Amino acid sequence: MDNYPFFLSRRLLLMGFMTGLFSFFSRSETVNAASNSGDKTWLLSNAEWRKRLSNEAYNVLRDEGTERPFTSALNTEKRAGTYHCAGCDLPLFSSETKFDSGTGWPSFWKPLPNSIETKVDFKLIVPRTEYHCSRCGGHQGHVFDDGPRPTGKRYCNNGVALSFKPGN
C-alpha cells in the first residue's frame, strides 16, 4: 500500500513519455491544413517551403520548433495592425488582442475568426494545445488558460512565425 502512489506515478510518467515519443515520431513529414480546407494552393513540398522561409521560420512553421524567448522584435510591437502567418500571409491576430505576457513571445488573447486550427501536443509529456495557421498548417505556438479577460486564453506565438502589417 505504501508503494501505490510511487508505482502509480512511475506508470503515469512512463505512459506520458511513451505517448510523447509516439507523437513525435509518428507525425507526418509535412503538416498541411490546406489538405483539410480544400485550398491546395498551400500544399507545398518541404523543398518549396525551405525556399520560401528562413531556416528559423522553417524550423518553427514546418517542424513545429520553438524560437528562443525574448528574441522577436514583435514582442515590443505596439502599433495598431494585424499579425499574419509568415508562411502564407493569412491574418491571424489583431493588435487589439495583443498583450505583454512576460513570457518572451508575442501573446494574444483571441485569434481572428477561422484563422487557426488546434491539436493536442504531447512533446513535453503533458498534453498541451498547439495551434496552426488554418490555411497553410504552419505551426504558430500553444494556447494556455492563463490569459487576460475576456477569454482567459494566452495564444503564445513564435514571433518568427508571424509578420506584422501596420494599420487597421
Topology of helices and strands:
Layout: H1 4-26, H2 34-37, H3 46-52, H4 55-61, E1 81-85, E2 91-94, E3 98-99, E4 107-108, E5 116-121, E6 128-133, E7 139-144, E8 154-157, E9 162-166
Plain-language structure description:
It is a single chain. The chain has 4 helices and 9 strands, in the order ααααβββββββββ. The chain is globular, with a radius of gyration of 18 Å. Mean pLDDT is 83; it is low at 19-36. The chain starts with a helix and ends with a strand. Strands 3-4-8-7-6-5 form a 6-stranded antiparallel β-sheet, with no helix packed on it. With 168 residues, the protein is α+β, with helices and mostly antiparallel strands. Strand 3 (98-99) and strand 4 form a beta hairpin. It has helices spanning 4-26, 34-37, 46-52, 55-61; strands at 81-85, 91-94, 98-99, 107-108, 116-121, 128-133, 139-144, 154-157, 162-166. The protein has one domain (4-166): Peptide methionine sulfoxide reductase (Metal Binding Protein, Guanine Nucleotide Exchange Factor, Chain A), CATH 2.170.150.20.
The CATH topology:
Metal Binding Protein, Guanine Nucleotide Exchange Factor, Chain A
Helix content: 10-25%
Cα end-to-end separation: 63 Å
Q: Return the string of H and E elements.
A: HHHHEEEEEEEEE
Query: Approximately how much beta-strand content do the residues carry?
Result: 15-25%
Short description:
This protein has 168 residues and is α+β, with helices and mostly antiparallel strands. 24% of the residues lie in helices and 24% in strands.
